[in-house]
Design brief:
Carbamate kinase, alpha/beta, nine-stranded mixed β-sheet
Length: 235
C-alpha cells in the first residue's frame, strides 16, 4: 500500500454534478462510496471540501461585499458541504467526524489537532470544515495546512480533469498531460494547480500533491494502490 494517510481535497463545485448550484445527491453518494472503498483498505482519510457550489467569498467581494464578511460566508458554505458528505458517508456505513475551524459546537467538533489525529488512527474519516478559520485563505490552503498538521502522506486533489496539462485541455486540443512535474516547473511555467499560498506551503513541507479526475469511478482506489493516475507534483 503506497499511502497510509491521505488528505482528499474536493471542490464545492464538484458536488453540483450537472446542476448549476447546490448539492447533487447522486454525486454525493458516488463520492461517499469511493471514500468507503478506500477506508475498507485500512487507509486513513481526511477530507477538505470547498464551498463554491453555495457561495464564493471572492465573488461576493467582487460584487461590493466586504471581503472578510464574504469569506466568512464561504467558510460556512464549506461546513454545509461537510455536513452533507458526513451524512452520505454515515449512510454508507463509514464512521465520520466533522471538525470546524469556526466554533459551532451543535453541528461540528472544534478542530483540535491531536483529536483529529486520534480519529484518523481509529479509522474514522475526518472532514475539516470552515477553511482555516481566517479570511483571505482558500480551502486549498486549508487542505495543505491540515494535511501538514495531521502528517498526511499526500494531498489528492480531485478535479474534473485527469491531471495537469501544458494548457487548459477544455480550451486547447493540443494540450498534453504531465505524468509528474516538480513544484519549481509548475511555478516557472505558471500552471494552475493550487493557489500560491497552498502551493508554497506544500513545497516547503515536502508534501506531494496529486491532481486527478475524481469523477471517474475507481480512480481514487487506483491512486491509493500506487497506480499512476493523474499528475504528481513533488520536489
Amino acid at each position: 500500500m503506497k499511502y497510509k494517510r491521505i488528505l482528499l481535497k474536493l471542490s464545492g463545485e464538484s458536488l453540483m454534478g450537472d446542476q448549476e448550484y447546490g448539492i447533487n445527491g447522486d454525486r454525493l453518494k458516488d463520492y461517499a462510496e469511493e471514500i468507503r472503498q478506500v477506508v475498507a483498505k485500512n487507509i486513513e482519510v481526511a477530507v477538505v471540501i470547498g464551498g463554491g457550489n453555495i457561495f464564493r467569498g471572492l465573488k461576493g467581494a467582487s460584487e461590493g461585499m466586504d471581503r472578510t464578511q464574504a469569506d466568512h460566508m464561504g467558510m460556512l458554505a464549506t461546513v454545509i458541504n461537510g455536513l452533507a458528505l458526513q451524512s452520505a458517508l454515515e449512510v454508507a456505513g463509514v464512521k465520520t467526524r466533522l471538525m470546524s475551524a469556526i466554533e459551532m459546537d451543535q453541528v461540528a467538533e472544534p478542530f483540535i489537532r491531536r483529536r483529529a489525529t486520534r480519529h484518523l488512527e481509529k479509522g474514522r474519516v475526518v472532514i475539516f470544515g470552515g477553511g482555516t478559520g481566517n479570511p483571505y485563505f482558500t480551502t486549498d490552503t486549508a487542505a495543505t495546512l491540515r494535511a501538514i498538521e495531521v502528517d498526511a502522506d499526500v494531498i489528492l486533489k480531485g478535479t474534473r480533469v485527469d491531471g495537469i496539462y501544458t494548457a487548459d485541455p477544455e480550451k486547447d486540443a493540443t494540450a498534453t498531460r504531465y505524468e509528474s512535474i516538480s513544484f519549481k516547473e509548475v511555478y516557472d511555467k505558471g500552471l494552475n494547480v493550487m493557489d500560491m499560498t497552498a502551493f508554497t506551503l506544500s513545497k516547503e513541507n515536502d508534501l506531494p500533491i496529486i491532481v486527478f479526475d475524481m469523477n471517474k469511478p475507481g480512480n481514487l482506489q487506483d491512486l491509493v494502490d500506487g497506480k499512476k493516475v493523474g499528475t504528481l507534483v513533488a520536489n
